[in-house]
Amino acid sequence: STRKESSAASDVYKRQVPVDEGGTGDAGRSEPLDEAGGEGGSVTYLPEALDDDDKSLEQLPGLDWRSLITPGTFLDAYMQACTVDDVPEEYHFWNGLLALGLAVGRDVTLDDFHPVLGNLFVCILGRTGVGKSRATSHLSRLLDAAIPEDRTDPNSRGARTLATAGSAEVLIKNFSKPHWDTPTTPGGKPILTGYGPVRGLVEYSELSGLVGRAGRTGSTLKPTLMEFFDGRPVVSNTSLSGGEHVAHEPFANLITSTQPKALKTLLDQGDADSGFLNRWIFVTGIEKQRTAIGGARINLDQAVIKLREIWNWAEPDQIVPEDIVVEWGEESAAVFT
User: Fold this and answer.
1) pLDDT tier for residue 59 given thresholds of 50, 70 and 90
2) How many alpha carbons fall within 13 Å on the CB side of residue 24?
3) Cα–Cα distances in Å, from 329 out to 5, 55, 64, 86, 105?
4) Of residues 70, 63, 120, the one with CA closest to residue 89
5) How far is CA 223 from CA 171, 242, 267, in A?
6) Is the pTM of this model over 0.70?
7) What pLDDT digit, counting tens, does each position of 161-198 carry?
8) 283: phi > 0 → left, psi -120 to 50 → alpha, else beta; which?
9) Which residue(s) pair with 252 in the sheet?
10) Is the Cβ–Cβ distance between 332 and 114 less than 8 Å?
């Protein structure tokens, strides 16, 4: 059965999910950065690799994120907390969306021909020292405080943070949570009874690391990542050495980063043709004046409370489980189409 949310609740959720990345034009409104969509969609590449002149990086577009946020929501609290630092604010915005997706996981979908999950693959673009890692550290602190995974609970809805996966086999294993029954006879082997769902944030510190691992002979890392992004109910891998690994109903967000001038050497036409490139959001941001000593302290207390409220709201009823489906409103449908 399906539970349709009220228009008010749906509107709050929809307002928190922007349709497209964009750049700030002369009128201060958001303009598309790319046309990346689902499999088979058109692809517009980012501009030519930038030269070594640091000033040229200021030409990268920003995002009018304030027009996309509803006051009093989680994203509002998260942005108020994080934007006091010297990191491009757009980084925090997309990290907030990653946290929002992990809070609802597969418990909430957007109504469409194929129900749409709230997972994202985000690549942050910026030069060295602009604050890419610092922005991600705030996200990690938030997840640990608000929705941590209980590894002792086979059905935990919390989110885990996953280190760099060197292969598709390791990635699937990280999202696998097998359930075992205690053997009934002395000396007997545990009996596999099923798998529990896992939701997690996969971190690659650099896009070059991901691409390098995916480029190894025989690697299936890219197609496996695409399966995770597409929300496949089961993602599996079998090898002679490792046996079978199964990820049942996984929910995977991914974050990485790179310098803009490196994109030309990391991604090619094959990534566009296969649909791998279409599944990414490349985030640019407007740089701030950096603080050499000290800086603002980030207090995430209110954001933690708000994210936990969303997490609890999305929890299925244990007696009569129902899906939460967010429906399209007229405003959001008009913007998307």
Assistant:
1) low
2) 14
3) 12, 41, 21, 36, 21
4) 63
5) 12, 19, 15
6) yes
7) 998 888 999 999 999 998 888 777 777 788 888 888 99
8) beta
9) 200
10) no
Residue that is written with structure tokens 């499999």 in the block: 39
Place of tokens 């059965």: 1
Tell me how long the chain is: 337
| 300: nearest Cα among 39, 13, 38, 84 | 84
Strands 159-162 and 30-32: unpaired
Considering only the C-alpha atoms of the chain, give the largest distance between any 2 of them, rounded to a whole number of Å: 75
